[in-house]
Design a protein that fits this description.
This protein is α/β, with parallel strands linked by helices and 488 residues long. It folds into two domains: 263 residues, Aldehyde Dehydrogenase, Chain A, domain 1 (3-Layer(aba) Sandwich); 178 residues, Aldehyde Dehydrogenase, Chain A, domain 2 (3-Layer(aba) Sandwich), CATH 3.40.309.10. The protein is 39% helix and 21% strand. The structure holds nicotinamide-adenine-dinucleotide. Nicotinamide-adenine-dinucleotide binds next to helix 8 and helix 9.
Amino acid sequence: MNVSETLSEVKNFIDGKFERNGQNAMDVLSPIDGSKISTLPLSSGLDVDSAVQAAKKAFPAWAAMTLKERVQIFFRYRALLEKHMEELTNLVHIENGKTYGEAKAEVEKSMELCEFAVSMPQIIVNEVQEVSKGVECRIERKPLGVVASITPFNFPNMVPHWTMPNALVLGNTMVMKPSEIVPLSTVRMAELLKEAGLPDGVFNIVNGGKDVVEAICDHKDIEAVSFVGSTKVAKIVYQRATSNLKRCVALGGAKNHLLVLPDANPEMTASNVVASMSGCAGQRCMAASVMVGVDKVQHIIDRMVDETKKLVPGDNLGSVISAEAKKRIEGYIAEAEANGAKILVDGRNTTVPGKEGGFYVGPTIIDYVTTDMSVAREEIFGPVISIIRAKDLDEAIAIENGSDYGNAAAVFTQSGGLAKEVIDRASAGMIGVNIGVPVPREPFSFGGWNESKFGVGDITGRSSIEFWTQNKKTTIKWNPEARTNWMS
Ligand code: NAD
């Protein structure tokens, strides 16, 4: 795999310039074939501080611009995403290993996120009321200052766009820490923002791992931290950032349950469940991980097995992210088998001719899983679905409710009443009815419940406006000589 000359060595982006920082470099591999595509600096707290100082310096002028002025830059930026769609799509494909079609959908979603950001002047109309004769109270939304965004490997282009456009349009300046496994898409993001006219210092990137994240959580001049990644790290980041008195929203992992009822449309259900568990090689926080089959659903399971035969690793099924991920996923399958589950479709030991160095796991369906097994409880993050059989809807809902996570849940049925029962009783932030990947689209916000999210509010949509701003309340007596007591 090859990337352009400028991407073959990732540098930090600070104050509008790419900087080589001379720190220990790490290799960036393409999971498609395991080849080295770039190197990445493992930055330190000093680099974080440089980025924060640049963001701090840029903040007053950026915050002083009107919202309408700031969004003009994002109209141009969105047009640049569209212009460079093919290149950006290829980049996601190469660094993450998902298929070209999946990568394209990701970049399209980034454009949609920018569309929400540029509509902010139509959404944010400040509140004003004459609270007593001649006296007015108003509330205005003001930016926080320097904010940070820490992102995971599975959506190198989209997840950075969950935070960056809204935070910036609302007047903040940002330090971003992309996943060290997929740092290339954010490099292009910085270049295109500059081309769109974003002033230097408003957006900065510091590359690296744990040290950078810890320095972000500890830096006194960072006001808010947004995190997306595994639950284990989300907890660490949430605790560390809030103990340093920052606001924080930290999205974690998932174990999404799809409840399949016997009256579900067999063809649609089978294709949806398989698409949900295998899309992006199962490395979506919205992926189906457990199917709870209620009563007689064998005919649907048989169709699911047929559906998986349409999936060809290296063609319409992408790779998983790394050799370690492949090993972990295959370990889960082996453990389930050893504990008595039945492997209906086995994706272990998959190699793709011509891409022998790549990290591939074929689609896997595990039946007769019980709730005590690891494959029923833990996030596998691969193209694997565990089927648990339930005698009725109450038992199925209890199984869903028993999960520590709560990102998404879905029900497949033709009965409106039964679907409503699941909508009301499932313990998850995002619910699907006859939809396997129930991602809310803008302006509806994205965020889970339970151990899938820590902090108040969601990460996108209207909810994010609360997160990225603070209210300024002003009380004004317009006519000072009037003897009105404003409290009267
Ligand atoms: P991860 O938690 O390993 O890494 C996320 C970020 O945290 C990266 O930038 C990484 O450098 C940093 N990090 C890793 N270990 C750290 C540590 N010990 N201390 C401080 N920082 C650390 O996650 P990942 O493997 O990149 O991404 C996959 C995970 O993200 C899955 O669990 C998936 O469900 C989750 N995810 C959740 C959502 C959501 O909306 N809830 C969306 C996308 C991904």
